[in-house]
TrEMBL record:
Domain Beta-ketoacyl-[acyl-carrier-protein] synthase III C-terminal span(s) in chain numbering: 243-331
Keyword tRNA processing belongs to the record: no
Subcellular location: Cytoplasm
Alphabetized GO MF terms: 3-oxoacyl-[acyl-carrier-protein] synthase activity; beta-ketoacyl-acyl-carrier-protein synthase III activity
Catalytic site: 119, 259, 289
Residues of the Beta-ketoacyl-[acyl-carrier-protein] synthase III N-terminal domain: 113-191
The protein, known as: Beta-ketoacyl-[acyl-carrier-protein] synthase III
Gene: fabH
UniProt KW Nucleotide-binding keyword: no
Classification of source organism: Bacteria, Candidatus Aerophobota
Chain segments carrying region ACP-binding: 260-264
Amino acid sequence: MTTAAEKVQARITGTGSYLPEKILTNADLEKIVDTNDEWIVSRTGMKERRIASDDETNSYMGTEAAKVALKEASLSVDDIDLILFATVTPDYMFPSTACLVQKNLKATNAAAFDMQATCSGYIYALATAKAYIESGLYRNILVIASDKLSSFIDYSDRSTCILFGDGAASCVVSGSGKGLLISNAALGADGSLSDIIKVPAGGSRKPASIETVEAKEHYIKMEGREVYKHAVRRMEAASLESLRQVGITESDISYLIPHQANLRIIEGLAKRFQIGKEKVYVTIHKYGNTSASSCGIALHELMNEKKLDLGKRILLVAFGSGLTWGASVLTVTDK
Ligand SMILES: CC(C)(COP(=O)(O)OP(=O)(O)OC[C@H]1O[C@@H](n2cnc3c(N)ncnc32)[C@H](O)[C@@H]1OP(=O)(O)O)[C@@H](O)C(=O)NCCC(=O)NCCS
């Protein structure tokens, strides 16, 4: 019988990311739509974002990020029992992008499936991996959160095309080893607000037709102000709930990694929590909003830049279409 002392605790043992080489700057956008660098920087904090080429499919980006995470975790692909791929921009409606990664990596021992939680995808996937590991169903899970949103952007719509970029994040979640304990995961959703940011057509409800293409319904449509308002509220509530679940306060957090949707949202959140600027990890100026991968890319960069002592804590928090939101406390562990 397993005693409480032997309880398996899920932890991240390696992280990875992949960013396409091609950079789309604010100056580039000025040539495409009626906008300017000053407006974009002051309203969003974004200076440039990465755009994947035709060959850099979502499955390719996810595979490359996964290779880095596997190497960091010192695991072979044969050790992986499950591949979990969080995305809103799968290569195909089906098969899953997780299966394409399984093929690319030759991870023949792994089950594979996609999950969809929009920009909260990385945290939802961490929560799912944690549950699988702690139930004893799997030993090593490859989590990937990756999006190629440039395929769903109307580059004549200045209210959305400035915001998004492409990129992938990955991590290995296991039941033992040094890394970052997934101390908790506080998830939430509100489907009654599903209309404020969505891609209206292309699903089974409204399949592709000449009319949907002409009406540009395969692109992201967003009520920016509404989304902004809910983002601030939900990320604050999810963060508070996360701290409560772990039994700590904001002063116990070494780094805050928020979803990189808008610098004003990030700064507002940090202010409400009285977390100093130096503790807030920001990548938005370089990559824009990369959807599911945004927290994961930032986490990978943070882990490679800073040496975090044992017991230090990172708070991840994200928000996205659905609506969905989630927050998770990660704690540095050496065993
Ligand atoms: C999109 C966002 C940056 C817009 O900023 P805002 O301050 O709310 O701006 P508004 O949408 O009210 O637009 C203000 C004006 O700027 C204009 N504008 C919009 N986009 C512009 C652009 N790229 N360049 C210049 N002007 C622009 C609008 O047309 C409007 O002009 P008007 O006053 O003449 O009508 C902001 O609402 C936001 O970040 N929302 C959240 C988006 C988000 O997080 N999405 C992802 C969730 S995961």
